[in-house]
Design a protein that fits this description.
Strand content: 5-15%
Strand order of the largest sheet: 1-2-4-3
Bound molecules: flavin mononucleotide
Number of strands: 4
Oligomer: single chain
Distance between the termini: 35 Å
Helix content: 25-40%
Shape: globular
Mean pLDDT: 96
Order of helices and strands: HHEHHEHEHEH
Largest sheet: 4 strands, antiparallel
């Protein structure tokens, strides 16, 4: 699958995963894709925790009832600083850095035949990020920002519709 096919084929998968492991070899490819993402001033601010230990997964599953989270053989967490140092000119880019890393990982997930979903809203409420942090021993200055359940999809997901090019794109000026 080339890069453009990966982009076209990526989708958010919320259903059950097959009871099939993600080998460490594949997991490492996905994580390396995250490390290779661009970052503001190359500060590489995002940190990652990959969980494939069934006992730890069991504890983590209590924080989110989504079938994908309940059945994923792997959960990847992206961590950022709660109070980041500026990368340049007083600006920190850690949110953008994490987004770039996550998108790289989602495309790698697709390329390797797995599925995933960017879970951020569902992690940021009701003390869920803090519950994950406590289970994983994450220090208080770090925020557990995004979670990616990864596995082999069992079901067909309805693809989200995208607006047509003309609705969001114009050439040589706004809405020309
Ligand atoms: C910043 C961000 C946060 C998201 N948080 C969640 C979430 O908490 N739960 C969820 O089910 N989907 C979440 N998503 C996935 C979006 O709902 C999904 O990308 C969107 O519906 C488009 O579908 P697609 O990914 O299949 O193209 C998030 C996506 C982004 C970019």
């Amino acid at each position: 699958m080339d890069a453009l096919e990966c982009i076209a084929n990526r989708y958010s998968y919320r259903h059950t995963f097959k009871d099939v492991p993600v080998p460490r070899e594949d997991l490492e490819k996905i994580l390396i894709a995250g490390l290779q993402a661009p970052s503001g001033c190359n500060k590489q601010t995002t940190e990652f925790i990959a969980v494939d230990d069934p006992a730890i997964l069991d504890q983590l599953r209590k924080v989110n009832s989504m079938p994908a989270v309940q059945t994923a053989p792997v959960l990847i967490f992206c961590l950022i600083d709660r109070q980041p140092s500026p990368a340049s000119a007083g600006r920190a880019y850690q949110v953008e850095d994490a987004a770039a890393a996550v998108q790289n990982m989602l495309l790698s997930v697709t390329a390797l035949g797995y599925a995933s979903i960017w879970v951020q809203g569902g992690l940021s409420v009701d003390g869920k990020a803090e519950a994950v942090a406590a289970i994983l021993g994450v220090p208080s200055q770090k925020l557990v920002f995004i979670m990616l359940p990864v596995g082999v999809p069992q079901e067909q997901e309805v693809r989200a519709e995208k607006l047509p090019l003309a609705a969001r794109v114009s050439y040589n000026g706004y809405k020309k």
